[in-house]
Amino acid sequence: YKTQFFNVSTSDDQAILDYAGDQTGNIFITDSILSTLMSAGRSQYSWDIVVNKYGNVLFFDKRDGSAIDFVNTFETANEYNAVEEKESIDYPRNLSKEATMINQFLSQQLLKKDVKKDFEEDHIAEGDEYAARKAYSYRKYELGQHKLIVRCTLDAYEANPYAEEGASPEFVSIKAANEFLPSKKSNWKTQLDSSASMGVVIPDELKNNAAKYAKWVLEASLADVPNFHLAFVTRDKISADPENKEKKKIDHAILGVYDFKTEELAKILNLNMANAWGIINLIVQNMLAQEDGKYVIFKDPLKPIVRVYSVPAKTFESSDEEDD
User: Fold this and answer.
1) What are φ and ψ of residue 239, in 5° steps?
2) How many Å apart are CA 29 and CA 62, to the nearest integer?
3) If both were cysteines, with which of 2, 96, 98, 131 could 70 make a disulfide (CB 3.0 to 4.6 Å apart)?
4) Could you give the 3-state DSSP secondary structure of residue 298?
C-alpha cells in the first residue's frame, strides 16, 4: 500500500509560515494539537506539545511520532485491563497503531477516485504522487485581542440529498470505530444487525473512548464540518505475518458506515465550544506571560494535570537540523 500519510507540524507548514510572515495572526496551531488541548480534561494517557514563543507570537507544535499522531483505543474504559506484554497485538501501543492504520486506510477507501476538488493553498505534501487524498483549510479565530490561525483537516465532501438544487456540497469527517476484543456481551458482528443493539453499541463506544471522540468532534467543529461518517470495523482474521513469522497479520472487516451530525455528537459527548475556547485562552495567556523561548506542555500520565516546562532551544531537534 503506497499511500503516504503526512502529519506535518505547525512550524513545518509553509502556508502557516506565510500567514505568520504576513502577520495574519499571532497564534499558530493545527487542529489535532488544538483539539488535544481543548479535550485535555478527558485524556487518560500522556502526551506533550512543544510551544515556541517569540514576543507576542506563539507556535504550538508536536514532535515527530508524537502520541498526538495516533488514535487511542479504550482510553476512558472503566472495565478494561490493559495487556502488559509489549509483543502482544493487544498491547495499548499496538492497539493505537492498529486503530490509526484503520482510520488512515478508511479515509481513502470511501473516496471516489475520479472526483477531485481544488483549493487555493497547496497540499502540505504537494508534488508527492503517493500522498493521501486530503484537503486542508486555514481558519482564523479571534481570541480576545489575539488572532489564532489553525490548519483544519477535511476528509471528503458530498452533496446533501436534502439540500436545495444547486446547493454547495458539504464537507464530511470520516472516522472508524474498531473492535478488537469481541465477547459474548459485546460482539459487533451480531449487535450491529439490530437497531435495538445499536442503542447499546454506540453509547458504550463513546463512553470507552470519550477522549478520542471529543478530539474528533472538536476538529470537525473547528473546520465547520457538519457531517460524520463513522465506520464500525472489527478484526476478521488473525494469522502469522508471511514477512515476519514472529508478528501477527490482522485482516479487518467493515461492518457498516453510519451517518451522524457533528452537532448531535457534540451534545451526546457534552462538549461545549465556549468551555473549550476558555481552556485555550487560559493556556495562551499563560504562555504569553513567559519569557521568549521553548516550552513543553506535558500531560501527566497518572493525574488529570497539565504541566509546563521550560526547555533549551535545541531540545527535540535532530542532529541533521543541528548540522544545517
Assistant:
1) -145, 175
2) 10
3) 96
4) strand
Please state, as a whole number, how many other Cβ atoms lie within 10 Å of the Cβ of residue 185: 8
Alpha helices by DSSP H, listed for the chain, are: 14-21, 31-38, 92-109, 188-191, 195-208, 210-222, 262-268, 273-288, 319-323
State the Cα–Cα distance between residues 52 and 63, nearest whole angstrom.
13
Per-residue confidence band for 323, with pLDDT thresholds at 50, 70 and 90:
very low
Q: What is the mean pLDDT of residues 233-239?
A: 90
Higher-scoring residue by pLDDT: 81, 142? 142
Residues 6 or more apart whose CB falls under 8 angstroms from that of 6 comprise 124, 125, 128, 131, 132
Closest by Cα among 121, 116, 128 to 4:
128
Query: Is the pLDDT reported for residue 67 higher than 80?
Result: yes
Cell matching residue 191: 449487535
Q: Is the dihedral of CA 67, 72, 77, 82 positive or negative?
A: negative
Of the candidate ranges 121-125, 261-265, 301-305, the one whose mean pLDDT is the lowest: 121-125
pLDDT bucket at 121, cuts 50 / 70 / 90 = low
Contact assessment for residue 5 and residue 132, using Cβ atoms and an 8 Å cutoff: yes
Rounded to 5°, the CA angle 100-106-111 comes to 145
Q: Helix, strand or coil for residue 39?
A: coil
* Beta bridge pairs of residue 58: 27, 53
CB 19, CB 138: distance < 8 Å: yes
SS3 content of the chain, % helix, strand, coil (to 5): 30, 30, 40
Residue 98 has pLDDT above 80, yes or no: yes
